[in-house]
Design brief:
With 233 residues, this protein is α/β, with parallel strands linked by helices. The chain is 19% helix and 27% strand. The chain has a single domain (2-116, 149-218), classed as Glutaconate Coenzyme A-transferase, CATH 3.40.1080. GO terms for molecular function: transferase activity. InterPro entries: 3-oxoacid_CoA-transf_A, CoA_trans_fam_I, NagB/RpiA_transferase-like.
Length: 233
């Protein structure tokens, strides 16, 4: 049993081996379901030249946005980039390369990597700048473009519950990109709100099987609200 225990004692241990120039795939959507402590650990490590793959880059001063403060990200692969002024500054100045990717395509790039599929055809992006330089092929009279999957050197994921074997459960919309990201890393690290003993998670409720997970660390989460919307009287 002990040989299957994937729980580590610190975020530093969880991210051991991350180096300059690596690719990091991060689960989360805005500030929902993000591995806050693992992102903070990357900032503390000071590694630079990173390619980060995620739906977006957080906000100024929180989430993936903190990695922009020390110029740690050189390339960002994302589907939405509208909530971060520092991101905008670095993009316009040429400090940051941005590869905009349709959201469904981005999710499939992660999922395909986890399934061992190197590339796939999609109709999304045909006839737009997204298709520039990519192979086109016609199926049943409709054009599709070839998109390559993305595998990260590290994948960082946030779970609601994880057991010591790495089996994960996500909660409601905090699931978002996390299941796909978890399959797409050479090293997958899960930051969980709760760590339970093996057998406490029913097999039917597991979203990510532990076979995909290398390390599990207990996290503490701030759970900020990205945009507070209230209804007027």
């Amino acid at each position: 049993m002990a040989g299957f225990d994937k729980v580590v004692s610190s975020h530093a241990e969880a991210m051991a081996g991350l180096q300059h120039g690596m690719t990091v795939i991060a689960g989360g959507f805005g500030l929902c379901g993000i591995p806050e402590g693992l992102i903070a650990q990357i900032q503390r490590m000071g590694v630079k030249g990173l390619t980060v793959v995620s739906n977006n880059c957080g906000v100024d001063g929180f989430g993936l946005g903190i990695l922009l403060e020390q110029r740690q990200i050189s390339t960002m692969v994302a589907s939405y980039v509208g909530e971060n002024s520092l991101f905008e500054q670095q993009l316009l100045s040429g400090e940051l390369q941005v590869i905009l990717t349709p959201q469904g395509t981005l999710a499939e790039k992660m999922r395909a990597a986890g399934a061992g599929i190197p590339a796939f055809y999609t109709a999304t992006g045909v006839g737009t700048p997204i298709a520039e330089g990519k192979e086109l092929k016609t199926f049943n009279g409709r054009e599709y473009l070839l998109e390559e999957s993305i595998q990260g050197d590290f994948a960082i994921v946030k779970a609601w519950k994880a057991d010591r074997f790495g089996n994960c459960v996500y909660r409601h919309t905090a699931m978002n990109f996390n299941p796909m990201a978890a399959t797409a890393g050479k090293v997958t690290v899960v930051e969980a709100e709760m760590i339970v003993e093996p057998g406490e998670l029913a097999p039917s409720e597991v979203h990510t099987p532990g076979i995909y997970v290398d390390r599990v660390v207990l996290g503490q989460f701030e759970k900020r609200i990205e945009k507070r919307m209230t209804r007027g009287n």
